[in-house]
Write a structure and sequence with these properties.
The N and C termini lie close together (8 Å). By secondary structure, the protein is mainly beta. A hairpin with a 5-residue loop joins strand 1 and strand 2. It has a three-stranded antiparallel β-sheet. The radius of gyration is 13 Å and the shape is globular. The protein has one helix and three strands.
Length: 73
Amino acid sequence: NGSEPVWTTDYKPGATVPRSGIYRCRNCGKEVTCNADDPFPPQNHHQHPQAGSVLWRLIIWTNTSGDDHHGTV
């Protein structure tokens, strides 16, 4: 239903990506594709003219493991 922590947690630049997917900056709308266990892009990754910090939030969970399912979301 979209209320689970995987869909509602914001991540700071450089934090470890918990799940592979597409993440959107909550303050400017820029999207990035990230792989699990890699770091999120750094603070200076893109121009950020809007007020507020870069905060990444998962919008699409991608399956990079080859499994047939993602588990319960």
